[in-house]
């Protein structure tokens, strides 16, 4: 069975972008692949996090995985920091990476631009991500479009290790949705929808109440035309809303286009809001049940125990190949 690995940072509210770009595929892949899904708390601290907020968000994201439909009997769900092998292999990979290739990462450039002091963790973020993936010799990595460059670097580091120390790592492939790989902001279709945007009207949070979702979508920016047509270059706002509609309704873009022909944006946006609410309401209900039951702790414990066996073996093998003296 092929292996799948992915992770989501527990920094702020998860959005519909995270859901469409990544989580929906996690749920889909768990039936046909051996899956590892983690909350990447070690990545979250590459920007300052308030300890109580980090703890709360970590539990929230883990619970959202389950609420979104990940079945812990099929997939391993765990916290990155519960498996120390991530940090250890991350360091080993940091020594394989070049400053130049890390400087070229657009996420690093975006997060560091205009700042006087930039954390070193932010700079080596991609080497830890490479470790996350290669630790499990994952074949496929379901992510949104913004992580493509990090995946490229992961592949380069895997090849580099194999060339220097002997063939060991599987070189992973990204698994990116055809539509919705980059869900854009509701107020500015040139920016991706992001949980770190200070304007909450720019994103739909997975835990937004139905009325907030309706209000945000009714106010979402559109062009001054009235045709519901998918054309990201000329109609980026409407095309973005159509991608969301398609994912939440199961209709194709063509079907959506035909349905609203000659009707303007009003009816389209109203129905869109109902499809998003119908997608998120059951998820929110399950989320509340999971949080109240406290079952997430046992799920995370079991997940970490399961995956640590794979991860620890990789670190042992890698250290041996690199020439570390074994502990007796
Ligand atoms: P993060 O936490 O920023 O986002 C989690 C996932 O959601 C996707 N995503 C989006 N997809 C479509 N449209 C959007 N607007 C949107 N915003 C976010 C992201 O592409 C991602 O798949 N570096 C990763 C976390 C990570 C990871 C890993 C991922 C750490 N280690 C190993 C895969 C494998 C990140 O920051 O994701």
TrEMBL record:
As annotated in the record, motif 'HIGH' region runs over 10-18
Where is it chiefly localized? cytoplasm
Q: Where in the cell is it found?
A: Cytoplasm
Asked if the record carries the keyword Cytoplasm, the reply is: yes
Q: Which residues bind L-tryptophan?
A: 132
Pfam family, any one = tRNA-synt_1b
Q: Which SUPFAM superfamilies match?
A: Nucleotidylyl transferase
**Reaction(s) catalysed by this chain's protein:** tRNA(Trp) + L-tryptophan + ATP = L-tryptophyl-tRNA(Trp) + AMP + diphosphate + H(+)
Q: How does it assemble?
A: Homodimer.
Q: Which family does it belong to?
A: Belongs to the class-I aminoacyl-tRNA synthetase family.
What this protein is reported to do is described as:
Catalyzes the attachment of tryptophan to tRNA(Trp).
Q: Spell out the protein name for this chain.
A: Tryptophan--tRNA ligase
């Amino acid at each position: 069975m092929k292996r799948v690995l992915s992770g989501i940072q527990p920094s702020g509210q998860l959005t519909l972008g995270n859901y469409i770009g990544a989580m929906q595929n996690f749920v889909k892949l768990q039936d046909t692949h051996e899956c590892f899904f983690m909350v990447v708390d070690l990545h979250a601290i590459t920007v300052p996090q308030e300890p109580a907020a980090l703890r709360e968000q970590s539990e929230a994201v883990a619970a959202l995985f389950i609420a979104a439909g990940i079945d812990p009997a099929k997939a391993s769900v765990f916290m990155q920091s519960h498996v120390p092998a991530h940090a250890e292999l991350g360091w080993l990979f940091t020594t394989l990476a070049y400053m130049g290739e890390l400087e070229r990462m657009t996420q690093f450039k975006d997060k560091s631009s205009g700042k006087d002091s930039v954390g070193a963790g932010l700079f080596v973020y991609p080497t830890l991500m490479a470790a996350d993936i290669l630790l499990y010799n994952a074949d496929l990595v379901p992510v949104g479009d913004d992580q493509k460059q990090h995946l490229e670097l992961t592949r380069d580091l895997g090849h580099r290790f194999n060339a220097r120390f002997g063939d060991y790592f599987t070189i992973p492939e990204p698994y990116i949705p055809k539509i919705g790989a980059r869900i854009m902001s509701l107020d500015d279709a040139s920016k991706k929808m992001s949980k770190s945007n200070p304007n909450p009207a720019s994103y739909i949070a997975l835990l937004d109440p139905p009325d907030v979702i309706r209000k945000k979508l009714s106010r979402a920016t559109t062009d001054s035309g009235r045709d519901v047509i998918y054309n990201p270059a000329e109609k980026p706002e409407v095309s973005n809303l159509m991608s969301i509609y398609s994912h939440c309704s199961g209709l194709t873009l063509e079907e959506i286009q035909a349905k609203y022909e000659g009707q303007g944006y009003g009816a389209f946006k109203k129905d869109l809001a109902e499809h998003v609410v119908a997608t998120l309401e059951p998820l929110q209900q399950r989320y509340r049940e999971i949080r109240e039951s406290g079952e997430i702790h046992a799920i995370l414990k079991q997940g970490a125990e399961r995956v640590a066996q794979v991860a620890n073996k990789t670190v042992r093998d890698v250290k041996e190949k690199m020439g570390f003296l074994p502990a007796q």
